[in-house]
Amino acid sequence: MSSSEPAVEHVLDTPFFHRWLTAAAASVTRDAARLTELDSAIGDADHGTNMQRGFAAVAEALDKERPGSPGAALVLAGRQLISKVGGASGPLYGTLLRRAGKALGDAEEITPQQLTDALRAGVDAVAQLGGAAPGDKTMLDALLPAVDELAGGGSFTAAAEAAEQGALATTPMLARKGRASYLGERSIGHQDPGAASSALIVAALTEAVR
Amino acid sequence: MSGETQEKRVGIVLVSHSAAVAASIAEMAAGLAGGSDAPIRAAGGNPDGGLGTSPELITEAAHAVDQGAGVAVLVDLGSAVLTVKSLLAEGDELPDGARLVDAPLVEGAVAAVVTASTGADVDAVVQAASEAYDYRKV
Fold first, then answer.
1. What is the CATH number of the domain that holds B68?
2. Taking CB atoms and an 8 Å cutoff, what residues of chain A touch B53?
3. From CA A16, how far away is CA A9, in angstroms rounded?
4. N or C: which end of chain B has fewer CB within 10 A?
5. In a domain, B4, yes or no
6. CA B119 to CA B68: how far, in whole Å?
């Protein structure tokens, strides 16, 4: 009996990552006003603008530089976010993508399992950089459930749903990191803007599948 | 030749969400240090000139003050802290010997500039700035 190949639904090649990041850029642009509105409740009302500026730079750099591997695409995107965002989400999302990209190395095609492992490395790096833990009302509360879902063999759609649920679950949480933490109890009752944008970026994976 | 101990000075970069705050603290620290020859640069505001953080301004300032004796980077909060941390993690954007200093921005800047102007090394400058946390006011 020939070895039965695991059912790899998607070929994760460089164009896939290009589509993912481009879809993420379109998504944060589409929802920029909502992100800024969430941020005006418990932050400094710049999250939508910042993410829009950062991801526009990502899309532009990808079109211009045409990176040759999934890893290179993520590293390039991460660097753009660190340079262009101007708020804390820049180094945080930049670290997420750059660390994930470095974990992928030079491979031209990767498996869903490798993507999951790379995202896990990226999320761990974000947690380390920001010093946040699950339940602190941050982007981790959307990212971790998504990575867990993928690690359990879930589809991108299931991961997107997990991220969205995670983002919604930040509403009753007390913020322990970032500017919102200065508000203490008054941060309760508002969804975390970073968790909301994380859910958009995870959801963009579903749009990248051909 | 007048002793080789640190002809070069440790460079100091001040990062604030506000360009005006960073520039004013730089001016104040240099003024209070009185005739200091330690190089100091402000890197305030976001890439559009608004409130926020600009990695490009920080990187540019760090290279401008780098005389080869190290660079002490003092920051205010939030994205300023995270941006410098991520630039240091990148490994090649800031000059060799650049350090993120855990210090209050205003008091730390004065301590850093005064210490750097004596020709102290980067460890001493970082320590002096960090010790500014201990200056109780009441």
1. 3.40.50.510
2. 86-87, 90
3. 13
4. C
5. no
6. 12
The 10s digit of each residue's pLDDT in B94-120 is 999 999 999 999 999 999 999 999 999
Which ipTM was obtained for this model? 0.81
Q: What is the pLDDT along chain A (210 residues), one digit of tens a residue?
A: 444 444 445 679 999 999 999 999 999 999 999 999 999 998 889 899 999 999 999 999 999 999 999 999 999 999 999 988 888 999 999 999 999 999 999 999 999 999 999 999 999 999 999 999 999 999 999 999 999 999 999 999 999 999 999 999 999 999 998 888 888 888 899 999 999 999 999 999 999 998
CB contact under 8 A, B54 and A86: yes
Residue of A nearest to B82 (CA): A91
Measured in angstroms, the CA of A10 and the nearest CA of chain B are apart by: 31
Structural domains counted in chain B: 1
Q: What string of DSSP letters covers chain A?
A: -PPPPP-----EEHHHHHHHHHHHHHHHHHTHHHHHHHHHHHS-S-HHHHHHHHHHHHHHHHHHH--SSHHHHHHHHHHHHHHH--STHHHHHHHHHHHHHHHHTT-SEE-HHHHHHHHHHHHHHHHHHHT--TTSSSTHHHHHHHHHHHHTT--HHHHHHHHHHHHHTTTTSPP-SSGGGGGGGGGTTS--HHHHHHHHHHHHHHHH--
Interchain contact, A83 vs B55, CB within 8 Å? yes
Which of B56, B79, B88 is the best mutation test for A, with the most CBs of A within 10 A? B79
| Residue B121 lies inside a defined structural domain of this protein | yes
B2 domain residue, yes or no:
no
Domains plus CATH for chain A? 12-208 (1.25.40.340)
